[in-house]
Amino acid sequence: MSQRLLEVSDLKKHFPLKGGFMGGTTGFVYAVDGISFHIERGETLSLVGESGCGKSTVGKAVLRLFPITGGQVVLDGQRIDDLSPSALRPLRRRVQVVFQDPFSSLNPRMRVKDILAEPIRNFGLARNAADLDARIAALMDKVRLPRDAVGRWPHEFSGGQRQRIGIARALAAEPDLIICDEAVSALDVSVKAQIVNLLQDLQQELGLAMLFISHDLAIVEHMTHRVAVMYLGKIVEVAPKRSLFGAPKHPYTEALLSAVPIPEPGAARERVILKGDVPSPINPPKGCRFHTRCPYAFDRCRTEEPKLVPVADALAPGHLSACHLHEMPAAENPLAGTKGHAVLAA
Q: What is the Cα–Cα distance from 203 to 44, expressed in whole angstroms?
């Protein structure tokens, strides 16, 4: 049996722009413009990049929160992007989400017990009322909250506690894949660490796969197995964690890693300062989308879009990069042998 739980192929989501005298379509926002990736069972794939690069749109597209423009989304061998709402309903249980804001993602008019009971009832997972109560108690244990807190309202909890409730709600449906959309970005630093550790423990205990969407590379380095780097609607690099953090193979990834604070006192790293601003997703650049800011860009980058292909001199197999530099001889490639920084997590 294949180990791939989720497979996304050439995914596109273009949002139409309305305007003009008749309110017609005047253009498109190319939020996600042809990306492919996969997630194996029990694996965490982190999707990283600057705000506005399309990370959250990818998560919403996988969740089928809106129709996609093109491509395919396959869950455990079954294509789900073209299913009708009725056919998709039983599969929704298998993919759940933890949202960014723990304050707005919970219904303030529902007690915790009702919040957790809702997905259990929706998918018919409880045999009777006693089974429902037992499942809710077990969920509270899993997220390390007291069982007697089920009678409280969301406003009675702190931000970190609310996010634990959000995680418990996602677990209530017994999913195979959880999409964490900036799930720790709204939390204090100490609380972030607690939630990340909780997610890791739950993954090991339950065998969950995760799509972890984040802009925080320090958190990503701590908890992920593989990383996909997005820029302006495209994936520009995919690699196992150690390979990407140890030796990035795309100029954009190199710049992102150079901005991560170094934990060792007195350690030094050359900071890569990118020129200019991120281009508009309404009118992305021709060729490589990063060429307008890339310190290594040459003529080919401005006309021909690079393909995401394996890199021969990477630290590990499965390291892909979309950069024309890797077709040069190693002596002429400024990224050959590029070093990032030591991986902190084991």
A: 9
Place of tokens 């789900």: 80
Which residue, 11, 108, 20, is CA-closest to 67?
11
Q: 43 by DSSP, 3-state: which?
A: coil
Rg (the chain; Cα; Å): 21
In this prediction the pTM is: 0.91
Look-up of token digits 């949202």: 99
Res. 263 pLDDT band, cuts 50 70 90? low
Q: Are 68 and 61 a contacting pair, CB within 8 Å?
A: yes
Place of tokens 């933890």: 98
**CA gap 244, 49 in Å, rounded:** 14
- Tell me: the pLDDT tens digits for 207-219? 999 999 998 898 9
Residue 272 is classified by DSSP as -
Q: DSSP secondary-structure letter at 87? A: H
Between CA 47 and CA 228 the distance in angstroms is 5
